[in-house]
Amino acid sequence: MSLEQSPYQNQPLVNDPKAEQYVIGSLLVDPTAYTLVSQYLDEDCFYDPMCRDIWKAVDNMGKQGMPIDVISVSAELSKQKSNVTALDLMNISAQIASSAHVEYHAIRLQDLGRRRKLWVVGQQLSKVGLLLQRQTFTGCLCPAVLETARLQC
Prior knowledge:
The protein is mainly alpha-helical. Helix content is 64%, strand content 0%. The longest helix has 36 residues, at 102-137.
């Protein structure tokens, strides 16, 4: 089956919305959570755009040693011109009964982010392979085609 006919083309990439919200909520309610998870996470670990925006604000604040809570993160998000509201932050943090497993879920998000990156690379390689295959069948494997393939990787 070719990439063009792949049944997975329109499927969402691997993600775990509940884990994303759990980690974000834990960061908002537990002052020690950032120290536990910052080594595992970057913005690519978050598939949900809202969680990604919140992480960027939290990470920026954490790196500056600023306190991380609903009010200060809301202010940081406003500075960053994000559409995430204080109500969104309160709704996420209200769902957190305990942040005891925040590190476990952060590692899971890191793994999912890596898997999404690998999927994208695989898609790019498949496209290059198709391009090269078509050019080989037409007998034209010219330098311009090879350069196009290199640029798509």
